[in-house]
Design brief:
5-stranded parallel β-sheet, Rossmann fold, 2 domains, 17 helices
Length: 501
């Protein structure tokens, strides 16, 4: 009898164990927290990508979703005691376009079927400072300066969005951000003054992006990206300065994506190529050409040039006898005689004749693409080696955005791609991320922070961030065919040119 009792008890215990093992309780995992780390101050250094610039403007409703602000929120959830993460908020509709004085940000004005009609918001603005400038008696935690190249981290004597106060320019985005302590115009000194124990550092993109956005034309860098040797010196100087000022800080740097991985450079070719008649070629100016050109393309051959997103506004004029681009580009100094002097004849069909070629400023030719790509490769080699030497963690944004371009990514069952508008990662200017795009960038930083420093900071819920207004379907070739105004995105040229403000 006893053996039956023992057998019964054994079977009961086994069944109970099995039942307990089959319950629906959530599996346990790493506890959200900072591990053995303490984070009492987080500072982010960068350019417009860091500032939360979006759709060709800087405005509060977009700045709220800057990747540094999103990271700060997730750090707080993990137990960081950083308090309010201070950013220089420009009330909507945001910062002005220096050429018009009106709001520079672009919006979807309307739809024509599945075609978005895009243009500047155009609201009138009054001059002013960020809404929290008067009440904050210390530097901002978000030190993203739109337009700043790597050189500007230490040396702000260049006029990056109005930061050159020595020239009497006491207005502008850069100046408004770098106002504390009084008389200090160095991003480095601002960051060091805050004594953060966590720093994200993402500079260097403008050292090649300004060249590319301008179609390979930018006076600030001598019509080429920053020389690789100069970049190496400046990057080492930047991290060396940070590490000496903040010996115990956790520093995370980002490398630089290829320009060919963003929709500003990949959207227009597949839209224009079908409209080049069989047997015809599009004539275009090559690097630094000022007049007629014999260079030709069908936009479909290997290593074909890339029409920038600005060029979409002029694509409908292919084959038309016009000098619309030159009128827009030269503005009040426009003259037919000046064009004729360099061999341009607007009576010829635009883009289909060597005397009225597609402008250099609206295209990256194969030489310019190679220059940009080689520079990014050199810059990223420097970033990796210098980061390692200074015990800084590295986020591989180059590899990440290459993968997005090739394959897209799936988050919470939704696919995101590098397609213009419908891909949901990039904003309307085709260069800077959207709200959700900034959430994705924040998560790439958080993944590296967690892996490098033993933390378990929760990821941003990307699906909870606002979406762009996208149509229900795309045009036949899978790409959005936007309607853009002539002279579109001049604000981007101004953003990347230190000499304009």
């Amino acid at each position: 009898m006893k053996q039956y009792i023992v057998l019964f008890i054994t079977l009961a215990a086994l069944i109970a164990a099995l039942l307990i093992g089959c319950t629906d309780s959530a599996p346990t995992g790493p506890v959200i927290g900072l591990g053995n780390s303490t984070v009492t101050k987080y500072v982010s250094v960068g350019n417009s990508l860091t500032a939360g610039y979006q759709s060709a403007g800087l405005y509060k409703s977009a700045q709220l979703y800057s990747y540094p602000n999103l990271i700060s929120q997730q750090l707080t959830k993990a137990g960081a005691t950083i308090g309010t993460f201070q950013q220089p908020y420009w009330p909507d509709p945001g910062t002005p376009d220096p050429s018009t004085g009106k709001a520079s940000r672009y919006i979807i004005i309307g739809w024509s079927g599945t075609t978005p009609i895009i243009g500047p918001a155009g609201e009138a603005l009054t001059a002013g400072a960020p809404e929290n400038a008067a009440t904050l008696a210390r530097p901002y935690d978000n030190l993203g300066i739109p337009g700043i190249p790597l050189l500007g981290f230490i040396d702000m004597t260049g006029n990056y969005n109005g930061t050159n106060t020595s020239a009497g320019l006491n207005t502008g985005i850069g100046y408004a951000i770098l106002r504390q302590p009084a008389g200090t115009t160095s991003v480095f000194h601002q960051a060091a003054a805050l004594q953060p124990d966590l720093v994200t550092f993402w500079l260097g993109a403008n050292d090649v992006l300004g060249f590319a956005v301008g179609g390979g034309l930018i006076a600030a860098t001598g019509n080429s990206p920053t020389p690789s040797a100069t970049f190496q010196y400046l990057y080492n100087q930047a991290l060396d300065s940070l590490r000496h000022a903040l010996p115990n800080a956790k520093i995370v740097v980002g490398n630089i994506p290829y320009v060919t991985s963003v929709p500003f450079f990949t959207t227009v070719n597949p839209l224009v190529a079908p409209h080049i008649p069989s047997g015809y070629y599009m004539y275009y100016q090559k690097h630094l050409t000022t007049g007629m050109s014999m260079a030709t393309t069908t936009l479909t051959e290997a290593y074909s040039p890339l029409i920038t997103l600005k060029g979409q506004a002029y694509a409908t004029l292919l084959g038309v006898s016009t000098c619309q681009f030159w009128r827009d580009a030269l503005g009040t100094s426009f003259s037919y005689s000046a064009l004729q002097a360099v061999g341009i004849d607007s009576s010829k069909p635009f883009g289909f004749h060597p005397q009225n070629p597609w402008p250099d400023a609206l295209i990256l030719d194969s030489l310019e693409i190679a220059m940009a790509t080689n520079s990014v490769n050199d810059f990223n080699t420097t970033i990796a080696s210098v980061a390692a030497a200074h015990h800084a963690a590295l986020v591989d944004f180059n590899g990440f955005f290459n993968n997005v371009k090739a394959n897209g990514i799936v988050i919470a069952g939704e696919k995101y791609t590098a397609d213009y508008i419908t891909g949901e990662i990039f904003s309307l200017d085709g260069v800077h991320p959207s709200d959700r795009g900034y959430g994705i960038v924040a998560n790439e930083y958080i993944k590296v922070i967690n892996a490098s420093f033993g933390m378990n900071v929760p990821l941003v819920n990307v699906s909870a961030l606002p979406k762009l207004s996208a149509p229900l379907s795309k045009v036949g070739n899978g790409k959005i065919d936007p309607v853009l105004p002539f002279g579109a995105f001049n604000s981007l040229d101004l953003l990347f040119s230190p000499s304009v403000q």
